[in-house]
Amino acid sequence: MPGPGTAEPDELPFLKFKLDGVVALSPSPRPTNVVQAGQPVSLRVDLGVEGFWAGLLVGERYNVFHHLERIEDGARKPLAGGTHTVPGAPDTGSFNVTSGPYTTGQAGSGTDFEVPAGSAAGTFRILTHVHFEDPAKEPIVTAFHDMILMVT
């Protein structure tokens, strides 16, 4: 399963921005990080803000980006994750946003997660990063997460 991400600032008790994980959401009965070609997959990003100054980020807009790298051949592409707003209490400490659904398919399908030609499966590294829109917050409040997903 995916582990926690890295986020800044991490200065409790004052302000901590969290990226607790990115989770692949796919139809049953497959495990979440192994998706059958042809099935859609969405990416849920688990975030949070804690500390005395958490209110400074409530209502702020941020962007989520997902970058794919196909392990078999190094092919890369970005996937838009959307623009979102930090919620107010009581959800400020733990909230999530979902991107997608994204398409999956065999070689030549032109899908978001496309199995490479000559392979039975495609293995994808997904680097997710979050940036705030406010130029004063953008260099200070940021996060990223790295995970693997396989399309069979």
- How far apart the termini lie comes to 18 Å
Could you name the CATH topology?
Immunoglobulin-like
Number of domains: 1
- In which range does the helix fraction lie? under 10%
Regions with pLDDT < 50 over 5+ consecutive residues? none
Number of strands: 12
Rounded mean pLDDT score: 93
Note the run of SSEs as H and E. Answer: EEEEEEEEEEEE
The number of helical runs is: 0
State the shape: elongated
Assign the CATH architecture.
Answer: Sandwich
Oligomer: single chain
Tell me the strand percentage band. Answer: over 45%
SSE-based structural type: mainly beta
Output the radius of gyration.
17 Å
| CATH class value | Mainly Beta
Instruction: State the major sheet.
Output: 6 strands, mixed
Can you walk me through this structure?
By secondary structure, the chain is mainly beta. The chain has one domain: Immunoglobulin-like. The strands form 3 sheets. Strands 1, 4, 6, 7, 11 and 12 form a 6-stranded mixed beta sheet that branches. Strand 6 and strand 7 form a beta hairpin.
